[in-house]
Amino acid sequence: MLREKWSSSIGFILASIGSAVGIGNIWRFPYIVGMNGGGAFLIPYLIAVFLFGLPLMILEFALGRHFKTSVVPAFSTIGKKFRIAGFLLVFVMGMILSYYLVITGWVLAYFLFFVMGEPKSFSLFTGSYYPLLFFLISGGITFFVVRTGVKQGIEKLSRFLIPLLFAMLLLLLAFSLSLPGAINGIEYYLTPDFSKLSDPFVWTAAFGQAFFSLGVGTGIMLTYGSYMRDENIVKSAAIITVSDLTVAILGGLVIFPIVFSFGLDPAAGVQLAFVTLPSVFQEMSFGIFLGAVFFLLLFFAALTSAVSMLEVPVATLIDSYGFERKKATLIVSTIIILVGLPSALSYTALKLELFGMPLLDLKEFAFGTIGIITAGLVLSIIAGWFFDQNIIFKQIGGGRWMQKLFILIIKIFIPLILFINLMTRVIKLG
Q1: 372-386 pLDDT, tens per residue?
Q2: 125, 238, 290, 295: which could form a disulfide with 110 (CB 3.0–4.6 Å)?
Q3: 238: confidence class by pLDDT, cuts 50, 70, 90
Q4: CA of 297: how far to CAs of 170, 218, 251, 339, in Å?
Q5: Opening angle at CA 123, ends 117 and 126, nearest 5
Q6: DSSP 366-400
Q7: pTM for the predicted model, two decimal places
Q8: What whole-number distance in Å separates Cα of residue 120 and Cα of residue 26?
C-alpha cells in the first residue's frame, strides 16, 4: 500500500502546529500559570519546552521518517519485545482522546450558545444531556477529517484553521489589552516571583504542561513524521515548538487582563473557561461576539489536536494490519466513542461518578497526567537506549557535539525528569 505524504513542508508544519496547539495552550496554560504563582512559572516552563519537549519532538520526527510507519511497527522493528510498548502508547492516546472529545464538545456547544445569543451556565449545561450530544458531534467531525486522509483531510484542515486561529487570537488580544486594569494582569502574568522556584511542584507542573501542550512522547509526532518528505527535522521542530509556545503566551496575555479587569481569581482553575469567562463576556460591550470568537478559537485548537490523536490508532491499524483508511477510521472512532460515553455522561444529568469523582476527571488524571508521562518515559528509553544512534544522527544532522548533547538529553535527562515528575504526581496524590 502506497504511504501517504504531506504535500509540502508548510502543510506538514501547519498540521504539526495544529496537533501541538490545543485546549492546553489557550485554556489550560493560563490557569496553570495562575495556580503556580504567575510569571515565576514561565521560567521552568521555558526550560521544559526547549531542553526537553523540543528534543523529544525531534526524536519522534526522526523515528517516524526513518521507519516510514506508525508507532507500533516502528517499535517492533527496534525490537519485537517493544511491540507491546507501542500498543501502550496507542492505548494511552486513545483513552485521552475519549475524554478530550467530551471537552471539545463543551467548547463547540458554548460557541453555538454565544452565536445564538443565549449563553448557558455550566451547571445548567451539564444538568442536561447536551454534553452527550456535542461529544457525539465532535467525534463525528474528527472522524470525517481523519477518514478523508493525510493531505485532503488533516493537512487541508490545518492549512485553513491554523492561520485563522492566530488571527482570532490577535483579535482577542487587542480587545483584552484595551480593558481597564489590563496592565495589572500583565504584570502578574510576566513578573516572576522567584521564591516560587523553590517549590518542586511548580517545576513538575511546568514539565507536565510542556509535554501536554506539545503533544510529545505519545506517538503523534512519530506518526506525523512518518508522512514527511525531506524537511529539515530540527528546523521544523523548532518552528512548531515556538509556534506552540507563542499561542500559549498569547493565551495568557488574553486571559489575565480580563481576569484582573473584572476582579476575578487568577488561580480559578478549570472553571475559568466554562464558568467564569462566559459570565464575564455577558457583562462586556460586544461580549456575545467576543465570547463566540473565544470559543470558536478554542474549538479550532481542540479539533486539530483531536484529529492528530485519532490518527495514531488509525495509522496503527493501517500499518500493522493492512486496513484501508476508511475502515480503520470507522473502527477506531466507534471504539473511542463507546469508551468515551461514560466520560461524557459524567457531566450530564446522569452524573456518572466513581469514588465520588466524575469519570472524566478520573480518566484525565489516569491518562492525561500519569499515562502521558509514562508514555514519554517509555518512548525516550526505547529510542534512546535501544535504537541505533547513527540513524538518529543521519536524520537530524548537525555537528558532533550537538548530536552527543542530544543523545545525552534523550537517554538521561528526559527519562530522569519524567520519572521524577511521575513520582511527584503519585506522592502528591497520596
Answers
A1: 999 999 999 999 999
A2: 295
A3: very high
A4: 11, 24, 11, 27
A5: 90
A6: IIIIIIHHHHHHHHHHHHHHHS-HHHHHHHH---H
A7: 0.95
A8: 21
Q: How confident is the model at residue 9 (pLDDT cuts 50, 70, 90)?
A: very high
359-365: Cβ within 8 A, 24+ apart: 360/99, 360/102, 363/95, 363/98, 363/99, 364/99, 365/429
CATH number for the domain harbouring residue 394: 1.10.4160.10
Q: Number of structural domains, the chain?
A: 1
**Residues of the chain by 3-state class (helix, strand, coil), percent to 5:** 80, 0, 20
**Side-chain half-sphere of 244: how many Cα atoms within 13 Å?**
35
Among 283-287, 344-348, 394-398, which range has the highest average pLDDT?
344-348
The neighbour count for residue 349, using CB atoms within 10 Å, is 12
Query: Do residues 156 and 361 lie in contact, with contact meaning Cβ atoms separated by under 8 Å?
Result: no
- Residue that has been written with the C-alpha cell 472553571 in this structure: 271
Residue with cell 523540543: 54
Residues in the chain: 430
Q: Decide: 328 and 150 in contact? Cβ < 8 Å.
A: no
Structural domain contains residue 42: yes
Residue 344 in domain? yes
Q: Give 315-373 pLDDT, tens digit per residue.
A: 999 999 999 999 999 999 999 999 999 999 999 999 999 888 999 999 998 998 899 99
Instruction: Confirm whether 241 is domain-assigned.
Output: yes
User: Within 10 A of 247 (CB to CB), how many other CB atoms are there?
Assistant: 25
Query: From the centroid of its chain, how far is CA 205?
Result: 15
How far is the C-alpha of 307 from the C-alpha of 205, rounded, in Å?
26
- Residue 321, CA atoms < 13 Å, CB-side half-sphere: 11
Identify the domain containing residue 371 by its residue range: 9-429
Cell of 312: 495514531
